[in-house]
From TrEMBL:
<feature type="binding site">
    <location>
        <position position="17"/>
    </location>
    <ligand>
        <name>a divalent metal cation</name>
    </ligand>
</feature>
<keyword id="KW-0378">Hydrolase</keyword>
<feature type="binding site">
    <location>
        <position position="108"/>
    </location>
    <ligand>
        <name>a divalent metal cation</name>
    </ligand>
</feature>
<dbReference type="GO" id="GO:0004523">
    <property type="term" value="F:RNA-DNA hybrid ribonuclease activity"/>
</dbReference>
<dbReference type="InterPro" id="IPR012337">
    <property type="entry name" value="RNaseH-like_sf"/>
</dbReference>
<feature type="domain" description="RNase H type-2">
    <location>
        <begin position="10"/>
        <end position="199"/>
    </location>
</feature>
<dbReference type="GO" id="GO:0005737">
    <property type="term" value="C:cytoplasm"/>
</dbReference>
<keyword id="KW-0464">Manganese</keyword>
<dbReference type="Pfam" id="PF01351">
    <property type="entry name" value="RNase_HII"/>
</dbReference>
<dbReference type="GO" id="GO:0006298">
    <property type="term" value="P:mismatch repair"/>
</dbReference>
<keyword id="KW-0963">Cytoplasm</keyword>
<dbReference type="GO" id="GO:0032299">
    <property type="term" value="C:ribonuclease H2 complex"/>
</dbReference>
<feature type="binding site">
    <location>
        <position position="16"/>
    </location>
    <ligand>
        <name>a divalent metal cation</name>
    </ligand>
</feature>
<dbReference type="InterPro" id="IPR036397">
    <property type="entry name" value="RNaseH_sf"/>
</dbReference>
<comment type="function">
    <text>Endonuclease that specifically degrades the RNA of RNA-DNA hybrids.</text>
</comment>
<dbReference type="InterPro" id="IPR022898">
    <property type="entry name" value="RNase_HII"/>
</dbReference>
<dbReference type="GO" id="GO:0003723">
    <property type="term" value="F:RNA binding"/>
</dbReference>
Length: 199
């Protein structure tokens, strides 16, 4: 059973990101404040759920959350900042949009930067332990998947609808054949060492 929150604060948000290990597309984070009586039998780490269940849960979370927000940080900023800093920035931008403001932040993973003076705690595999982090993982993943499906229409050869920008064999094959697109992260190794692209 996932726990509701870490602190005694009324407005504790969970935050998580999706797309850190991708070669293309944004890194997307979400922040969610759930009511104290929230529960749902399916709600767990988004990676454990089918796409259909994630979409169904997204609707429930958006309806029942006290507040939620998501943010895409695009390829240019990822290349400037590095992926870890871009992920944290996406979380900060999502937390900023919450109303009421978060009084405490529960962060998935083990790295975060202070958000003003708001107390926070990092939780490794937090999306499998806390409901609000799991909810944030679902919002981040579904919003990012929707973005990747949209840009897939522009560049169908890269199969982003299926691989979501992750380094699958088909994705790497398309990069080798057609080169990188404006949606590729230039600071990432797009191909294994012996197949370096002139960017």
């Amino acid at each position: 059973m996932l726990q509701l929150k870490i602190s005694e604060f009324q407005f504790e948000c969970g935050t998580d990101e999706a797309g850190r290990g991708c070669l293309a597309g944004p890194v997307t984070a979400a922040a969610v404040i759930l009511p104290n009586d929230f529960s749902h039998p399916w709600l767990t780490d988004s990676k454990q759920l089918s796409a259909k269940k994630r979409i169904a849960l997204k609707t429930i979370i958006e309806k029942e959350a006290i507040s939620f927000a998501f943010t895409h940080v695009m390829m240019e900023e990822i290349d400037q900042l590095n992926i870890l800093n871009a992920s944290i920035l996406a979380m900060h931008r999502s937390i900023e949009q919450l109303s009421p403001s978060a009084q405490f932040i529960a962060v998935d993973g083990n790295r975060f930067k202070p958000f003003g003076k708001t107390p926070y705690e990092t939780v490794v595999k937090g999306d499998g332990k806390f409901l609000h982090i799991a909810a944030a993982s679902i919002i981040a993943k579904t919003e990012r998947d929707a973005f990747m499906a949209k840009i897939d229409e522009e560049y169908p050869a890269y199969q982003w609808k299926q691989n979501k920008g992750y380094p699958t064999a088909a994705h790497r094959e398309a990069i080798k054949k057609y080169g990188p697109t404006p949606y590729h992260r230039k600071s990432f190794r797009l191909l294994p060492g012996q197949l370096v692209l002139p960017l």
